[in-house]
Amino acid sequence: MIVRRVNQLNLNWNMLNSTFVIGGNHHNTLGVIRSLGECGIKPYVIIQQDDLPPFVSRSKYINKSWLVSSDKDVLDVLLGEALEYHKEEKAVLIVCADNLSSMVDIHAAELESRYFLPGTKEAGRISYLMDKEVMSALARETGFNVPKSIAVNTADNCDINISMPWIIKPLLSKDGHKSDIERIYTLDGWKDYCCNHGASVQVQQLIDKDFEYQLIGLSLDDGNEVVIPGVSNVIRPSATSNTGFLRYTSLDDSYRSVLELSRRFLQATGYSGLFSLEMLRGKDGVDYFMEINFRNDGNAICVTAAGMNLPYIWYLYNTGGR
After folding, report:
1. What is the DSSP letter of 168?
2. Is the C-alpha dihedral spanning 78, 294, 98, 52 positive or negative?
3. What are the tens digits of pLDDT across the range 147-156?
């Protein structure tokens, strides 16, 4: 125990690279801050929020925080005032929101000289892959089972050749909200949805599920090395939050094929960074790919609590640590 503590202190003493966390006023951002803080890293934090009290900025682990209201504001801070806090060395960047993942992806050419970025070598690829129909097609090519789906605009009166029931989701997560996700059982229900949600959506076959689960992980070296420590099973939804109650456990043999497909999928994306794969297991025993989030997952603090600190590993990977 003494040796472990001394090694940890020596490692912390040599931490020269600043770390920036960007995200909303949300437990996702707070979880990353805590994960880093417990390893001796006090990040700089840019919080995008509107009118909620900025509880994230109260974390004892924060070095300095900025409160902003738009994607452009986040970019302006990263390319402006934030540079004063890492003049000599590149800083590590961790993203905690879909819209900011897309922003970093689109502006990678401006950011990459000053930050270690999550993403791919091809600018704009992550934003392209965020389209749920695009990611579903890539998942099918990789070998995943994927429910039938189609991209439609709610303003169009088009035929949907998928048997009901459906689940409707924003086609691009960064442009939608959790409230836009809805189960549809009748044509009247679909008409009501279209009247209240004017957007491009994915209409997907609703699978008769046994349970939902997430594979929260870290992709390194353009997807050639993938860390998925365990599985979080959704026990039940929460009445007051978009995050349900979870149980995080070790992976057993029933996930072996899904893990291999996940590695193939991430290698095909060429992505490096924190991620989560949302899956479900049907009552037919089949595992189905639902979507991938190219960012830290809101539930990832459970992985840190289980002993695998993925934000810290991302820091070490980029700065030459072990």
Report:
1. E
2. negative
3. 998 888 877 7
Is pLDDT at 75 greater than 90 in this prediction? yes
Which parts of the chain are beta strand (E)? Answer: 19-24, 44-48, 64-68, 91-95, 115-116, 149-153, 166-170, 182-184, 200-205, 209-220, 225-227, 231-236, 245-249, 273-282, 287-293
Whether the per-residue pLDDT at 295 is higher than 50: the answer is yes
Tell me the HSE value of 189 on the side-chain side, using a 13 A CA sphere. 11
- Look up residue 39 and give its two tokens: 């390893």
pLDDT value at 4 more than 50: no
Which two tokens mark 76? 């302006």
Nearest 5°: the CA angle 234, 270, 272 is 65
What is the distance between the alpha carbons of residues 199 and 260, in angstroms, rounded to a whole number? 35
| Residues in CB range of 137: below 8 A, 6 or more apart | none
Distance, CA of 163 to CA of 173 (rounded, Å) = 24
Question: 285-289, long-range: CB within 8 Å, 24+ apart, which pairs?
Answer: 285/210, 286/145, 287/144, 287/145, 287/257, 287/258, 288/144, 288/145, 288/146, 288/147, 288/207, 289/136, 289/139, 289/144, 289/145, 289/146, 289/261, 289/265
Q: Structure tokens of 162?
A: 């998928």
What is the Cα–Cα distance from 278 to 280, expressed in whole angstroms? 7
Helix (H, G, I), strand (E, B) or coil at 225: strand
Whether the per-residue pLDDT at 127 is higher than 80: the answer is: yes
Q: Tell me 221's DSSP state.
A: G
Q: Which pair of tokens denotes residue 294? A: 């190219």
pTM of the model: 0.88
Measured distance CA(236)–CA(211) in Å, rounded = 10
| Tokens representing residue 56 in the block | 């994230």
Grouping H, G, I as helix, E, B as strand and the rest as coil, residue 90 is coil
pLDDT tens for residues 238-284? 777 767 788 999 999 999 999 999 999 999 999 999 999 999 999 99
pLDDT band of 15, cuts 50, 70, 90: low
